[in-house]
Every structure is written in structure tokens, then in C-alpha cells.
Amino acid sequence: MARTALVTIACLAGLLSCLLLLNSLNSRSIRLTLRPCAKSDEDFIQLTEERLARFQRGLRFRTVSYDIGRQDTQQLAEMVSFIRSSFPRVHSAKSSVKLTVINQYSLLYKVQGSDSSLLPALLMSHLDVVPTDGQNWTKPHFDAVVEDGYIYARGTIDDKVGVFGILEAMEYLLAKDWKPKRTFYIAFGHDEEIHGFQGAARIAEHLRTVEKVQKLEFVSDEGMVVLDGFVSGLSAPAIIIGVSEKGYVNLRLSYNSTPGHSSMPPAESVIGVLARAVARLEASQQPSQLGNGPEKAILELLSTYLKLPFPANIAARVVLNNLWLFKPLVSYRNPPTNALIRTTTAVTMFNAGIKHNVLASSAQAVVNHRIHPSQTIQQVVDHDRQVIADPRIQIEILDGIEASPVADCEESSYAFQVVAGTAQQVFTDGRVLPGIFVAKTDTNHYLQFTRNVYRFTPNHIHMRDANRYHGVDERIGVTVFEKAINFYYHLLRNADLPREQFSLLGHRLLRLRRLLPHLLEAHVDFPVTVGVGQSGQLLEVLAAVAVVVAEQRPAQLLAVQVAAAVRVEDAEAGLQLCSDGLPAAADGGAERGELGQRQA
């Protein structure tokens, strides 16, 4: 009997081990297909002294948002005027770009595309910054001094890098007679730091009511960054694309009782009762949501990127690809992990008492929750009530916003590939990871148009510099700002590329289409009028054909339309790839072409 039990246990252990290893082998990946951006490229935008000076001038405007209704509007007006005068091609009366000023200080640009069948895309940033009051900077707060390769000023990374990066890219494109297929909207709100009610909300209303926008292909906004030192074992920088954004809710907890003299205290004081309630919230945090949101994809992708010595590399792959079993192990409560996998709980205010010898008659505490995308505000409040378990404690919702939906972040997603692919195209040594943005932006005003909102700031920092956001000595590298300009340039260009450019199979098809004329020389009876430009060896072409046939063959015959990429004079022609991988002509063809007739 004991032997049978041991054999059974051994078999189950063996099956479990096989399952764990199989899951580890079938780990996720993100394959991006865009050609890397290099300084030697003809269209690389150099950071000239003029471009740097424009950025520095923009940083010197003290466009501070203190609170709702408290902004330096004079500085905002001066910055808007500076922008309009500094980018003449963008703001010319003859420009193809249309500018609408929203609510005096927010800017909405429209670049009309030639193909109305394509959904428009929105790039956004904001003009305002947070205060520096009470912060001990080592550099002047708004002078935009350049020192040791960095530009120091409030707003360098949050988020005037976005404003001036986009404008520089647009100015460059317009100088090249840019005429996009897709319509683009560029939105610069003026009050993002105080929730965007007068900026982004009004822009969204204008898009809906005046521009009649119903859907957007994607939204690109500030957010996560390229990060060194993200996690031990990841030698490459992490290009983190925020695919969701935490919501928040501020709760006021209160308890009221009868005041009295401190010489005759009751068994429970008002402060003691509320303090115990707060302590319970801190001891019993909101439940882990690991596996319910995008953090599962983050950890699975990390397992493929980590470079650890044996056997730690095997252990990491097994653990991170089998969260159904190892969830408790991964869910330990250090602050970064907490922020990723659960709704966080932070007690930010506690008020009680009026005099040292008077018993407080009331006590109040404010609790700030940052809500995981898998939870709602109501679920968070219900959890707090259950944990406090004291009906004397009143819970009041002060304000809050639900977490945003999770944007597409699969390899097959066109929108994600455009944004993430562009980021890796510019930050060439990085590895793409989806992420949850734990702070708050004003993108919630645009969720009515799409859930595909991607939060990425083209900034490259080390983990130790993360506290410079809203903090002391905010800065951006000079070369990083140059990369930011090129990121927005390529983002605008890449969003015009066909969808098949951003899938692995589609990329192979495009390669096949580019090289197809070489193969057609021996088999097709119609002329081809597009040049190849590269040698395109026959073996590479045949390999591409074999891949297409193997991956897409419907029964015995695969039909591939190549007319869009391989043009034929006077007529469009189809091409059929038979199951043996050889092409056959369809519908005859034209009688002449630049490369001459191709006889079978």
C-alpha cells in the first residue's frame, strides 16, 4: 500500500515537473520588425544648437499648476505664443496643419490624412508642470542649464520633452513635404497636473462634437520610460510601455464621540478607535491581482530576457511562467511589487484633537488607494469595510477615477506594434515590456475613443533617478532629448505603414513581395515595374515562399495578392503560390514594363 502511494506521488511529481517545464518552454515573446534608427540615417534628426535652444526656452516658462483654479496663466499664455512663433512650418497659414486653441491655453493640431478609411491617431503631451516649492535643488529650477550632458529644469521629463519632441518632429516632416495617409491629432493640454478638466476634457469634447471623431486607432501619451536597473539579471534596458493606468480613490474615515477632559478618559478614545481601523487596513492589504492583469505578461516576458547563471535561469523561467502555482512566492510585499500586482493602500492624512488636555470628539483619516486595473472603486471600498469590521467608522468617498482598461499588448496588435516597435527602433538596445502606469495622467478623457492608450515617455534613465519625477533636480540627457525627437518622428511615420508590416508573417510577406521580381523572372508572363534595390538571392526568396506556404496554406493552394507591392503596368495581377511553393501567373498581364517582359 505504501509502495503504491509512493509510486503515485512520484508519477504526479513527474507530471507536474513536465507541466512546469513545458510552460517554461512556451514562454511569451514580442518580436518587432522595424529597422533600427541610426545616427547615420539620412532622415535622422540631429539635435542642433537651435533645437536645443528652443527646448531650453520652453523650459524657462514657469507654467506651474498648483491646484484646480490656481495656475500661472500668464506664463502659459507666453509659452503658447513662443510655440506659435518658433515653429513656422507648423503654424504657417499655408501649412497643412490646422491649429485650434482650446479654452485659451490648450493646443489641438490636426494633420489631415489622405485615406479616410484609416482611423485617426492621437499624440498628446501637456504644457503645465508641478511646483518646486520647498524642494532643495542644486540647480536653478527653471534656468534649463546644461551640465555634464544633462538639461536641468522642472518639466524636462514631465512633460515638455513630449511637447517639443513632437513639434520638432512635425517641423522636420513638414520641411520634407509630409502628407500622411492617416489623420493625426496632436493635443497639448494645459492642466494635466490638476486632472485635465479644462484642457484634455475640453479637447476630447471638441474632438467628439466638432471633429466628429468616434474612434481612434491609438493614443500615445507620457508615462513609462526606458529603464536601466529595472530588475536584477536584466542586462538590457527595459522599454516599458504602459498599457494600463491605475485608478485612484480618496476615502475619508471618520469617528465621532463625546468630548471630555483628559483626566477622566473612557476605555476607548476617538483617536484610538480610528487608529485601530487604519492599522487594520495596513495589516490586511487589498488582495493580490497577480494573473488578472497585464503584470502576468510582464513577468512571463521578463523570464525570456533575464540573463542569470545556471540554475537560477531555469528557476526564474519555471517560476515566472507558472504563476498559477508560484503566485504566493511572487506576491511578496515590497513596494515595487505591491504597486504592480495590487491596489495599494496609503494613509496620507490623520487629524484629531484641539488641545493637549481635551479628549478629541472626532478623528478623521484620509486613505489613498491606487486601484489595480482588475478592481473597481466599489470593490476596494467593500474590502476596506470588511477589514475594518467596525460599524462606528464612517467611510466617505472624496473623489476617484476608475482604473483604465488594458490596451492591446499582444504581438499581433497593430497599435501596440506601432508604439512599442517605434520605441525599440530608437532605443535599439532595449527590451520591450508592457507595464502598468501607477501614477495618473489625463488620458482618461480620451478613453471614449479607444482603449488602446499607450503611456510611454521617450526618456532613458536609471532606476535610481526615478525620484526626479516631480522631485529634486529633474533632468533629461541631451542625447536622450535627441532620441525623443526621433521617436516622435518615427511614430508619425510608422503609423502610416500597412498593418502587415507589424506582424511576423506580414513582415515575411513584405520581404517576399520586395524580392518577388527575381523569382518572377523564371515563372511569370507579365512585366514588373517596381525595382528591387537589393540583391535578393533566390534562396532567400524560396525560403520566404516556403514559410508563407507552411504557415498559411489553405488545403492545397495559397492565394497571395501582390499587386499592392508589385505593380504591373496597365493592369493589376494576382499571383498564386501552389502547395509545392512555385508561383503561377494569373490573368495574363500587361505587355510591357520597365524591366522588360519576363517569359516562362
TrEMBL record:
A GO CC term assigned to this protein in UniProt: extracellular region
Tell me the GO molecular function terms: aminoacylase activity; metal ion binding; peptidase activity
Instruction: From the UniProt record, list the coiled-coil ranges.
Output: none
Q: Keywords of this protein's UniProt record, alphabetized?
A: Hydrolase, Metal-binding, Protease, Zinc
Nucleotidyltransferase as UniProt keyword: no
Gene Ontology biological-process entries: adaptive thermogenesis; amide biosynthetic process; amide catabolic process; amino acid metabolic process; lipid metabolic process; proteolysis
PROSITE patterns in the record: PROKAR_LIPOPROTEIN
InterPro entries membership: Bact_exopeptidase_dim_dom, Pept_M20A, Peptidase_M20, Peptidase_M20_dimer
Q: Where are the transmembrane segments?
A: none
* Catalysed reactions listed for this entry: N-(9Z-octadecenoyl)-L-asparagine + H2O = L-asparagine + (9Z)-octadecenoate; N-(9Z-octadecenoyl)-L-leucine + H2O = L-leucine + (9Z)-octadecenoate; N-(9Z-octadecenoyl)-L-tryptophan + H2O = L-tryptophan + (9Z)-octadecenoate; N-hexadecanoyl-L-phenylalanine + H2O = hexadecanoate + L-phenylalanine
What pathway annotation does it carry? Lipid metabolism; fatty acid metabolism; Amino-acid metabolism
Which residue numbers delimit the Peptidase M20 dimerisation domain? 244-383
Functional summary from the UniProt entry? Secreted enzyme that regulates the endogenous N-fatty acyl amino acid (NAAs) tissue and circulating levels by functioning as a bidirectional NAA synthase/hydrolase. It condenses free fatty acids and free amino acids to generate NAAs and bidirectionally catalyzes the reverse hydrolysis reaction. Some of these NAAs stimulate oxidative metabolism via mitochondrial uncoupling, increasing energy expenditure in a UPC1-independent manner. Thereby, this secreted protein may indirectly regulate whole body energy expenditure.
Q: Which PANTHER family match?
A: N-FATTY-ACYL-AMINO ACID SYNTHASE/HYDROLASE PM20D1, N-FATTY-ACYL-AMINO ACID SYNTHASE_HYDROLASE PM20D1
What's the family? Belongs to the peptidase M20A family.
Q: What is this protein identified as?
A: M20_dimer domain-containing protein
